[in-house]
Amino acid sequence: MLGCCENLMKELALEDPEGYRRYLRMDTETFELLLSYVAPSITKRDTNMREAIPAAERLALTLRFLATGETQSSLHFQFRIGVSTICGIIMQVCSAICQNLHEFMETPVCAEDWKLIALDFWQMWNFPNCIGAMDGKHVKISPPPNSGSVFYNYKGDHSVVLLALVDAKLQFIYVDVGTNGRVSDGGVWDKCSLKRALDGEDLNIPVATCLPKCSVKSPYVIVADDAFPLTPAIMKPYPGRGMSAEERIFNYRLSRARRVSENAFGILATRFRIFRAAINGSPARVRMYVLAACYLHNFLRARTLLAQGLSREQGETMMEEIESSNWQQRAAAFVPLRRGLWRGNWEAKLYRHKLMEYFNSTGAVPWQNKMCNLH
Q1: Which of 31, 48, 231, 286 has the highest Cβ tally under 10 A?
Q2: What's the first-to-final CA gap in the chain, in angstroms?
């Protein structure tokens, strides 16, 4: 099936399914399904001089690269393919993954789809009118030649920024990759297409609706951390020390919803070890690697949800292993964006205050006082 790796892959598939899954980060059935998506774009014709490398081998090579972060010289000895050829194959397959798996990462453009996401957040994470959790991370890279300090970030590394919007089921619904790590928090947010779409009202986000079991209306919002501005469309925690008990409860409830982005980053970095060290290659190549990993993450999450009987349209509770695992430790491969000192506007503060009151009355959950050490 896989040229020079044929014996190894057949042996793993027949005798060690778990080893196969760990080798390529997916089982044989999922690999064959993925191959059916990308094969038309990566299949090459044989010539009179030599046979083309099979599409399955090209895909396996790329998956192994993303799964381990091995150098192309190391992959050369595993697959017995030239280093320069490997370099081209990885870029071609990553591009094919992004082009052919686009259905697994589509930003909603109609109100009903946003409402389904909000329903998931309420049923799974007890946060109403939430249409996504947003976070940004620095992906470490080797400094490009003659780049100076352009990619140098506040942690002392060179990086590009991965900005993502995540739904309640840990799937990316929007990603922006490639901003150089030296750009400030406001610069990352200001330049991304998501902000332009929000400002231009191009996403058809539903109008404000009543909170569950309450007559108070609140807009649909994105939850985020202190690195982002407080606006009517972005909800962030109360800042500073000396917060009241009610404000601490609000911060806990918001953190409970916002952590899905941390969980998604943690799963991404655990599954694809390329993120564990500085990635070699030009910023354009790194961007393609990161995008391909994000699309594969969504593809594999969709397979997991299907196996669990959870379609995208269902709003059933899904706590799974996240409640008993600390995914944030696994997200250490990423460097968080620097926290900003945004003041927010009065309208956004009013909405936040309404939510705070709601979480301390009608929308309270039994365990929130314990989690905030309130008695």
Answers
A1: 286
A2: 62
- Tokens 């090209």 locate to 58
* Position 268 pLDDT exceeds 80: yes
State the Cα–Cα distance between residues 261 and 289, nearest whole angstrom.
19
Q: Which conformational region is residue 31 in: left (phi greater than 0), alpha (psi within -120 to 50 degrees), or beta? A: alpha
253 exposure class (CB count in 10 Å sphere: 0-12, 13-18, 19+): buried
The Cα–Cα gap between 94 and 78 comes to: 20
* Tens digit of each residue's pLDDT (9 = 90 or more) over 172-198: 999 999 999 998 777 788 889 999 998
Predicted TM-score (pTM) of the model is: 0.89
Show Cβ contacts of residue 116 under 8 Å, excluding neighbours closer than 6 positions: 312, 313, 315
- Chain Cα centroid distance, residue 125: 18
Q: How far is CA 5 from CA 56, 61, 73, 76, 355, in A?
A: 11, 10, 16, 11, 56
Which residues on neighbouring strands pair with residue 158, listed in sequence order?
152
Angle, helix 28-42 to helix 83-100, in steps of 10 degrees? 100
Judge contact between 10 and 1, C-beta under 8 A. Answer: yes
d(CA 304, CA 300): 6
- pLDDT reported for residue 314: 44
Kindly indicate the confidence band of residue 270, based on its pLDDT and cuts at 50, 70 and 90. very high
